[in-house]
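Late entry, evening session. Most of the bench is empty. Finally got around to the prediction I had been postponing all week. Sequence below, unchanged from the version circulated by S.P.
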Amino acid sequence: MKLVLLTSFIVLLSCPCFSQIDSTLLRQAPANSSDTLLNMDAVYNRPFLSIGRLPVSLGGYVEANWQHLGTDGVTEGHQFQMRRFTLFVASTIYDRLKFLSEVEFEDGTKEINIEFAALDMEFHPLLNMRGGIILNPIGAFNQNHDGPKWEFIDRPISSTQMLPATWSNVGFGIYGKQSKQDFMFAYEAYLTNGFNDKIINNSEGRTSLSAAKENEERFEENFNGLPLVTLKAAVSHSKVAEIGLSYMGGVYNKFEEDGLLLNKKYRVDVFAVDMNTVIKITGTYINTEFALIHVEIPPTYSQQYGSRQYGGFLDIVQPFYKKPILGFNESILNISCRLEYVDWNMARFKETNTNIANHVYAIVPSISWRISSETVLRLNYRYQWQADLLGNPYSKTAGFQAGFSSYF
């Protein structure tokens, strides 16, 4: 039965006489990022395929790459990776009633995740309701993470290892936006299921919000019965920049069971700021995001579990050639650089009053060929320094990565 359904799906996609590309929602990557769309619009800001009179539109993207990386002279050699295969299904059920889902297959089928599956009810530009599996809008990357929009093969360290990238939960909330001349104002507010004690009870031996993604039960039950609150406000000027401020917080431990008090409540609170802009004179695209995390740590845990973490990234993308290449008329060549930093533990050792040096730096220069707004070929060089807890000499990772990412 599964084979029949899959075959039918492929036939529908491959039949040109019934299909058309709807790219009106696609936000072009760096070179054209000065439009009035915001990061909060990213979930619908994608190309979709409409098939005849079917009530749904389909889309997706794919990422694959080669890499050769080594750490302190030790390497695993040449590695070929199928990072992601992602499917979108969208439908306008009724006027101002929309549904969208996003299913992602990572590393082949090692991980299969429903990252987004929500129903939007539009009442007024400033008051709309969303319910289902929601991407918590902490920072910008969590919502606007599609591979074809980026010039870099790896996702930012701060967004994947410090913050839980593509962090989604079941919940409900409201959102809205309003424009006035060159300005646009927007907000989002959600109550969802949240974190669990994997933040500190994990195999990484440090405070890790991303470890909470291992809790697959968060899509059917809340770990401690208290909602996770996520809030975001953004303002954009069409000729200046978009700036977003966001907050996510709640209790992460199980403090009560069947009415019996087990422990005190321990909180996690995250604050993030993001900004993107285009320098008109040079066409330089700048995108940055930084976050501060505060986690209440039980006194029984050692100092290696940090109560404060900080990190972020800065992307600079410079187009330098905009002419047809090999018959591709929309070609753009970009030279880019990403700067990254994460401090896993911002504390000091109590005994010696010296810094706990658990942090990482990275610099990633890149050259990319945007064959079209929907497809990019990328060549990256990664150089990364990582310090351990005690501040021993840096562990250094370096190497090349090359690959592509494309909507379809």
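Two things to note before I forget:
The helical segments are 2-13, 157-162.
Confidence is low (pLDDT under 50) at residues 1-35.
Will write this up properly tomorrow.
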